[in-house]
Specification:
This protein is mainly alpha-helical. The protein is built from 12 helices and 8 strands.
Length: about 375
């Protein structure tokens, strides 16, 4: 009997493989070079890390077994201050101060600096939120712009003040043609009038006459006009009726501007138009003062009457609880009794005693 044998592997006809094209060959070569470069880079990184991280004991000695204990010395790099960690408190180096840090549970909140924010009428934004917005980068009124130096800003403020007051180079000219048809001071006829007053108050007057006649050309505040001449807010806010000059408040810069009025204009309106004469103004002032005093007295009397009613009611209730009637002002019973001792006297037995004036209790007193 013949032994079974493995049948031979069927031979298939191999298909002819065409050689790779130049494009495929170029890609294969590029991939091979890239893989080679990555391999060399990883080997270099491993070698650098192995050279730096030498195994050491907690004391700083080398951990190799072939090094004797007597020869185990720490390297200079391990004890050198050049590799000092950043957390070491070294006074020679200036430490970075990050300020007060929030607690861990509050770190998710954003701390906004509202002094650097601008109200854009659509939200409060800072310059970092929208760096291209011109409204955010515009300088606030009264602050120096970023593109100007301090000298330029001071010169700009000086020229602005002279322009508003019409002084210096901004003062109108005084030529020969202005002597006849120009505006003159209403007191002395001088051509050198205060142009700011002429523009605001429509009052041509020079600086010398302002100082010479303070009873006519001094300035009154809004509070003085209301208290002394009994004018109302609508009358003082009417620029056509009583023109006023606005100036920054000297007490607080963020308060409203002062409203300054010319004295003779306020007096003319108060005496001739509103009250008729100075005597009628004084009579109205006295009447208001009397009304104010009367209202104050009536308020005091009403509060005193309420206090008396409340005191009488409380006294009546306490007397009912005490079980005996009494008059207003009497001592109310029901509370803890306190003795009020009289003068010390001697009794028939020769003992010194003192007696309570309310309950009649007697107590002997020894005198040494």
């Amino acid at each position: 009997m013949e032994r079974p044998s493995t049948p031979p592997r069927p031979v298939t006809a191999r298909q002819a493989v065409s050689p790779p094209t130049p494009e495929v060959t170029r890609r294969i070569e590029e991939n091979r070079l890239k893989a080679k470069a990555l391999r060399e880079r990883s080997l270099a990184a491993e070698a650098a890390s192995s050279s730096q991280t030498t195994a050491r004991t907690p004391s700083g000695f080398l951990a190799e077994a072939n090094v004797s204990l007597s020869a185990r010395k720490r390297a200079h790099a391990s004890v050198s201050t050049s590799s000092m960690p950043s957390t070491s408190r070294n006074a020679a180096e200036a430490q970075k101060d990050d300020g007060i840090q929030p607690a861990r549970k509050f770190k998710k909140y954003v701390d906004h600096d509202f002094s650097k924010m601008t109200d854009t009428k659509g939200g409060f934004l800072s310059a970092e939120d929208d760096p291209w917005n011109k409204a955010l980068h515009a300088a606030k009124e009264g602050e120096k712009p970023a593109h100007m130096t301090l000298k330029e800003w001071e010169r700009h403020q000086l020229l602005k003040g002279l322009r508003n007051r019409k002084e210096g180079p901004f003062e109108p000219g005084l030529g020969f043609s202005q002597r006849d048809k120009g505006k003159k001071c209403r007191e002395c006829g001088s051509l050198e009038i205060d142009w700011q007053w002429e523009e605001v108050f429509k009052c041509p007057v020079c600086s010398r006459c302002k100082e010479k006649f303070p009873e006519r050309y001094s300035l009154l505040t809004k509070t003085e006009a209301k208290d002394d001449y009994l004018l109302t807010d609508p009358e003082l806010k009417d620029a056509e009726l009583l023109p006023h000059l606005n100036k920054p408040n000297p007490h607080k810069s963020h308060w409203h501007d002062m409203m300054l009025f010319l004295r003779y204009q306020v007096e003319e309106y108060a005496f001739k138009t509103k009250w008729g004469s100075a005597e009628q103004l004084d009579a109205e002032f006295e009447r208001r003062e009397q009304d104010k005093k009367k209202r104050k007295e009536d308020k005091f009397k009403s509060k005193l009457d309420e206090l008396k009613k409340k005191t009488r009611t409380d006294a009546y209730r306490r007397n009912l609880k005490g079980g005996k009637a009494g008059q207003f002002g009497d001592r109310i019973g029901g509370g803890r009794h306190e003795h009020e001792w009289g003068q010390t006297v001697e009794d028939e037995a020769g003992m010194t005693v003192k007696t309570c004036t309310e309950c009649g209790m007697e107590v002997e007193e020894l005198q040494f």
